[in-house]
Design brief:
By secondary structure, this protein is mainly alpha-helical. It has a single domain, classed as Growth Hormone, Chain: A. The protein is built from 17 helices and no strands. The N terminus is likely disordered.
Length: 424
């Protein structure tokens, strides 16, 4: 497999035992930050569309809450990746968490003042927290070996489970806190989001030492490989040259577009059919559990069975979820099952795809390529989310699921191409 420009072993300038120790510490720190930051994000996903619905009075506009978060994740993907490429993972991740916290403050102010455009701007900033959450998985891969890259990456993804599942179920308690402060009940989870992002920033800034990306790129400099930071264009070219890298990016983007498109409108669909807010919160919690809880298993399988087979299984699960959710009608249990499957399919696509992308590129060129991957991933999600409200209003929840399922088709086409060229 093509490893990109200047690929060398990641065990050249430090002994394997020391590198393994540093990698274990790095993964633990990243996991802790994911737990804290994920608490707020899970809560925000459950109420964002409802706040937007309250401010705008429109089902179509309610979908813009999650869309703005996804768009924000896309907007900040490259700047944060660029910061990582120039200065290391620690500054990049810390900056992202802080920008997300700023977004929380803006959302609170916009909701209090009833200014919908300002609310949308705040949600874009909240998207920086999502971008940081996603880029943490790349930090876990910087010092990993090929035998453990899927596992290390996946346990950092898994750590989001704790916060993301707990968060939506704190809607009630945090709503009470918001009322005590004279705020709308729906702002309780936003307070939690802001505090969680600030906590994630503090953990990364203090504890992520030594910086994993700076260590990985130092190996290349020592071995005579150019030390200047490659640009995003270099990363895009590297992706285009390698069928496996291209498949990885398309698989990640497709999985995210399917997930965001369906998940965005599920709270609105359930609310229209009389589901209680607590039931909506539970459904989103279980969906997020599907996204993250089994990711270590997905990572282990991708290390053992291969990245491409596991990613394709993930795409297949997304298709099954579309059938289950799309035929659920008013059945809350069936909708919940479909949302859990949606999360599982997303996990397979993201974990296996991210590991495949990382091992296809050198350490120096990874940040730009990974930033581009996250950019198009979130643009795809933002596009699907923006259209989801319109599709729901025109074709119903079943039509929305069918629409989302179509995004999986290019992945299977590119997988056939990768295998035909010997990259599978």
């Amino acid at each position: 497999m093509n490893r990109g420009v200047g690929h060398v072993s990641t065990e050249t300038t430090r002994g394997a035992p020391e590198r393994a120790r540093i990698q274990r510490r790095t993964v633990l720190v990243l996991m802790a930050a994911q737990v804290v930051g994920g608490i707020g994000m899970g809560a925000m996903l459950a109420v964002g569309a409802l706040i937007a619905l309250d401010l705008s009075g429109s089902d179509a506009w309610s979908g813009m809450a999650t869309t703005m978060i996804t768009l924000g994740a896309a907007v900040f993907a490259l700047p944060l990746a660029g910061t990582a490429a120039r200065r290391g993972r620690r500054p990049g991740l810390t900056l992202g968490w802080l920008l997300g916290a700023l977004g929380g403050f803006v959302v609170i102010g916009a909701t209090v003042w009833g200014v919908f455009p300002l609310f949308l701007a705040g949600m874009v900033l909240v998207g920086a927290g999502t971008a940081t959450n996603l880029q943490s998985r790349h930090a876990a891969a910087d010092l990993a070996t090929e035998r453990t890259r899927g596992r290390d990456l996946s346990v950092v993804v898994w750590a989001t489970t704790v916060g993301a599942v707990v968060g939506p179920n704190l809607i009630g308690p945090t709503g009470g806190l918001a009322r005590m402060l004279g705020l709308s009940e729906l702002l309780g989870p936003v307070l939690l989001t802001t505090a969680g992002f600030l906590g994630g920033a503090a953990l990364i800034a203090v504890l992520l030492r030594p910086d994993p990306l700076r260590m990985a790129t130092a190996d290349h400099s020592v071995n005579g490989v150019r030390s200047s930071s490659p640009t995003m264009v270099d990363g895009v070219r590297a992706i285009g040259r390698d069928p496996s890298a291209l498949l990885a990016v398309v698989g990640i983007v497709a999985g995210h577009a399917v997930m965001v498109g369906v998940m965005t409108m599920t709270p609105v669909h359930m609310s229209h059919h009389g589901s209680a807010l607590t039931v909506v919160g539970l459904t989103i919690s279980l969906h997020i559990a599907g996204m993250y809880a089994l990711s270590p298993v997905v990572g282990w399988l991708s290390d053992r069975l291969g990245r491409i087979p596991v990613m394709l299984v993930g795409q297949g699960v997304l298709l099954v979820s579309a059938v289950v959710s799309g035929t659920a009608g008013h059945d809350e249990v069936q909708v919940t099952i479909g949302l859990v499957l949606l999360g599982l399919g997303w996990s397979g696509s993201l974990v296996a795809g991210s590991a495949l992308l990382a091992e296809s590129l050198s350490a120096q060129i990874r940040p730009g390529a990974q930033g581009f991957s996250d950019l198009v991933m979130n643009l795809g999600g933002a596009g699907a989310g923006a259209l989801s409200g319109v599709v729901l209003s025109v074709a119903g929840f079943g039509g929305l699921n069918l629409f989302a399922a179509l995004f999986t088709l290019p992945v299977f086409v590119l997988a056939i191409r990768a295998w035909a060229t010997g990259h599978g």
